[in-house]
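Retry 2 of 3 after timeout on previous attempt. Resubmitting structure tokens to design endpoint.
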């Protein structure tokens, strides 16, 4: 087998095969010569050889030798892997490098041909020292600890080395504020965070705390107990819509005390020396309590004065700050002389052209450490925007390497209720892992192969391509929105507001402000595309332990999007609709909602489920009102 024919993810920097094979057939056994490694490495070796039906010994009992060789001069995460006809040699400089070498060895062993493994020579190291995943757990969906560990298992096997859970509001029980939670709250606890930190560390994944501390504070500030801490206690207008308060008053000492108490509860639970303090989108800054001060000294200085107090506070816990780059760019010109140099700026952007040479050069010339942060494109879509996602991630990898970015952090946001299936997220995590390790190799087909063979175990080699094709349903339409798909908006924003229903069916939470529909034929074209994917899904034969659940998730997602197409077509056609049509839609959304709830409970905590299904429930109520039934 040639190197090009091997499914390896991430694909190594240098790889050669010589046409020869290491023969592991006929009950071959391997003896291992290794230093004192963490148990996780030997456990991984045992799994690798067991799956290949090869006996592994820690002593000199095997016919074939597996030798670990320490080489101080190799970079920390680099490794060399040599498979010869008479044995295997792994060269490394750190435990992490040895772990990554074994991961690659495992992928090679699983591709043996009748017990013969291609003799291969590999040198490998990542493009970026930090390769991370950030999962939003603040917009309704909070995975159980068991699910979070499963996610860590997947990303660790992909050589991802950083994991963040995005906190705003109340996804975590802060002991200092326990009286402000509902007694039935089912959220993350201190004990779970400590356990997850240990689990990550054992798998060479740094678990970085992520706590927003300036904007995005609505869940706290909306309550009477904390409203006084707001920049605008009565709320503010955002693109014509009145919004609840979301930004702290930076001049109020109690605002800082509130944030400090949250950090005191959270930061000691993490072994990481970093913390993502957010700091993005303080929408109301300068509009209310701080207006006069912002006019006097500038918004940038008011913002940075507050953030510098936060920097000093987290320094007490031995942690250095990370923060989002939108406000940094806005105010850097007026504050560059006082901006701390120990901050890592997280430059986010979610389209193919979000990252530019100009922005990367700004950070590089300023001597500021930075990551580029593309997105999964899954939020407000259900199953994503595959082509946009691929272009976004590849652009980040290319420009980040060109301009010296320290890392890539792939963000998986939950806007729209976090209704994207986990299987879709995991598939995109593989894309992020592949290109943040090796941005020069074209890996799209290898990613599909990895998903089929290693992650989901599909003998028909269907599921990997299907997931990415499902993420391209948005291309059936002639136009698109940047931060959502039109079909999703039909389900979540537009809904039934234009159906001329009788008075009393008004839903203020979902008042329609977007009348920019697709044409009826675009909805019909999208529906036909989705129906072909549904047939392909039925043919898939997954043999992983969660195969039935994966297929249920995708079947629900396709069904929900088809429902959106039917609703959109009905509204866009301008024709008279019958009560029977609406009754059919009501029956469909009722079944979809029931299945969504059942799937949710298998992987996620109870808290957030009601909020995530609000739009589905509102749609059912509207259908019922049109039909004159409850």
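Retry 2 succeeded. Sequence:
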């Amino acid at each position: 087998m040639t190197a090009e024919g091997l499914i390896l993810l991430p694909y190594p920097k240098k790889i050669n095969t010589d046409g020869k094979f290491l023969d592991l057939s006929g009950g071959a056994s391997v003896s291992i010569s290794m230093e004192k490694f963490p148990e996780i490495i030997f456990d991984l070796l045992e799994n690798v050889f067991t799956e290949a039906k090869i006996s592994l010994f820690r002593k000199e009992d095997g016919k074939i030798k597996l030798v670990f060789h320490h080489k101080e001069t190799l970079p920390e995460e680099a490794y060399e892997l040599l498979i010869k006809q008479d044995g295997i040699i792994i060269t490394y400089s750190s435990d992490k490098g040895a772990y990554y070498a074994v991961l690659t060895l495992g992928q090679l062993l699983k591709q043996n041909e009748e017990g013969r493994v291609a003799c291969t020579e590999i040198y490998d190291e990542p493009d970026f020292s930090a390769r991370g995943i950030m999962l939003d757990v603040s917009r309704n969906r909070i995975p159980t600890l068991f699910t979070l560990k499963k996610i860590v298992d997947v990303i660790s096997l992909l050589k991802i080395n950083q994991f963040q859970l995005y906190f705003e509001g109340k996804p975590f029980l802060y002991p200092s504020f326990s009286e402000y939670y509902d007694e039935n709250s089912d959220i993350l606890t201190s004990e779970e965070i400590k356990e997850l930190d240990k689990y990550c560390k054992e798998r060479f994944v740094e678990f970085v705390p992520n706590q927003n501390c300036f904007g995005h504070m609505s869940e706290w500030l909306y309550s009477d107990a904390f409203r006084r801490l707001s920049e605008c206690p009565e709320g503010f207008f955002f693109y014509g819509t009145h919004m609840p308060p979301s930004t702290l008053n930076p001049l109020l000492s109690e605002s800082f005390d509130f944030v400090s108490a949250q950090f005191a509860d959270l930061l000691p639970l993490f072994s990481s020396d970093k913390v993502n303090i957010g700091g993005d989108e303080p929408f109301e800054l300068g509009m209310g309590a701080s207006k006069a001060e912002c006019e006097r000294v500038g918004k940038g200085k008011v913002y940075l004065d507050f953030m510098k107090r936060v920097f000093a506070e987290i320094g007490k816990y031995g942690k250095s700050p990370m923060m989002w780059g939108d406000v940094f760019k806005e105010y850097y010109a007026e504050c560059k002389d006082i901006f701390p140099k120990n901050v890592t700026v997280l430059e986010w952007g979610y389209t193919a052209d979000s990252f530019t040479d100009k922005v990367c050069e700004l950070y590089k010339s300023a001597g500021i450490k930075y990551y580029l942060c593309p997105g999964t494109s899954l939020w407000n879509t259900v199953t994503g925007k595959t082509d946009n996602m691929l272009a976004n991630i590849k652009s980040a990898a290319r420009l980040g390497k060109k301009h010296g970015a320290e890392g890539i952090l792939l963000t998986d946001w939950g806007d729209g209720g976090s209704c994207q299936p986990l299987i879709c997220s995991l598939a995109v995590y593989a894309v992020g892992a592949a290109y943040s390790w090796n941005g020069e190799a074209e890996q799209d087909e290898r990613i599909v192969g990895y998903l089929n063979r290693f992650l989901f175990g599909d003998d028909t080699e269907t599921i990997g391509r299907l997931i990415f094709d499902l993420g391209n349903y948005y291309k059936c339409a002639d136009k698109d929105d940047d931060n959502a798909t039109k079909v999703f908006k039909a389900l979540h924003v537009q809904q039934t507001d234009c159906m001329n229903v009788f008075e009393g069916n008004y839903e203020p939470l979902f008042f329609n402000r977007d009348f920019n529909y697709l044409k009826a034929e675009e909805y019909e074209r999208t529906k036909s595309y989705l129906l072909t994917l549904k047939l392909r899904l039925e043919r898939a034969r997954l043999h992983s332990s969660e195969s039935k659940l994966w297929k249920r998730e995708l079947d629900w997602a396709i069904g929900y999007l088809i429902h959106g197409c039917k609703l959109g077509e009905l509204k866009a056609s301008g024709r008279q609709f019958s009560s029977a049509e609406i009754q059919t839609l009501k029956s469909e959304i009722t079944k979809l909602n029931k299945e969504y709830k059942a799937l949710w409970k298998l992987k996620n905590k109870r808290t957030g489920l009601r909020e995530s299904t609000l739009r589905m429930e509102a749609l059912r109520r509207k259908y019922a009102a049109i039909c004159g039934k409850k």
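Attempt log closed. The first helix runs from residue 39 to 51.
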